[in-house]
Fold this protein.
Amino acid sequence: MYKIFIIIFFISINSNAQNNIDEKETKVGLTEVEFEKAKEDYLNMTLTETYKANKIIITKLIGKLNGLATPKDLSDENVWLNWVTENLSKTKFKNIDEAIKLRKLYVESFQKQWNENADLYQIMKKATLEQIHEILKPERAGRPF
């Protein structure tokens, strides 16, 4: 669930950037050098305190969601507020304020992680889905936790 959440959030953060790219363009993927660097950089990122703190926040947020699918763009506060208002009784959030605060904490935490690993995320934007799966392999293998 965590890796899916990361991928969804990664895609949503980049949705504005992707809108600027010609719709007819297709990803050609990373070169072998970029691909190997991305795998190494991702693994190194998973060992950082920022990443570990972000994972704790995501785990808490996922637990509060109670298995519900969220809107694609969690970075949009209004979209989140509307979703929470409509689904609060189905979640484990005590109230809307708790949901707003946890989402804000998550967005801030992920933004910090993004800023600390900007080169990695820029490279990953060019990666094919197959390459992204390979880059995220440490996460899927349950490491480093």
In short: The two ends are 15 Å apart (CA to CA). The CA atoms of residues 67 and 91 lie 8 Å apart.
